[in-house]
Amino acid sequence: MNSKKIRSALQGNHEEGFTLIELLIVMSVMLILMTLAIPQLLKLRKTAAETSAIASVKAIGQAELSYNSAYPQNGFSCSLASMGGVPGSGAPSAQAAQILDPTLAAGQKQGYTFNITNCTKVTVNNQDMFTGYEITAVPTSIGRSGDRGFCMDENNIMKTDAAGGTNCTTTLQ
To answer: Would residue 122 count as lying in a domain?
Structure first.
C-alpha cells in the first residue's frame, strides 16, 4: 500500500461540514438565547423612552420659564407650538418663540405624546395672561412605549401616573 492509501484509510471517508443534528442543536441554543434576550431588550427600550419623557417634560418646563421671562404680558404658554418654531426662520414671537426643540413642540417624541393642559389665566388690561399650566406626557402605546405617565405643573413638581395616563398623584423621586 502506498502512503496515500494508508492515510485515506486512517482518516476515514468523512466529508467536511456540519451534520443536521449539529445544526439543529446550534439553532436551538440560539432560539433559547433569543427568548431570554428579547424581553430584556423591550424592557430597556421602555426604560429609555420613560427616561427621555422625563427629560422632555423638564425641558418643556424650562421653556415655559423662558417664555414667561421673554413675554411677561402673556405669562406662561398654553401651547407647545407657541414655544416652538424653526430657529432662523424669522424673529421669535409670542406665537413662535423658538425656545423649544421643534420635534418636541410637535407633541411627539420617542413613544410619548406631550401636551400642555389645565391652563389658568387672568385678564390684565384686556390681555389674557396664563398663570398656571400642567405639562403631560403619556405613552403612545401603554405597555409598549412606556408604562407610566408624567406630569409637571408651574411649580416644577414632577409626578407620575402608574397607569400611563394623566392622573398623576405620585411625586417622582
So the answer is: yes
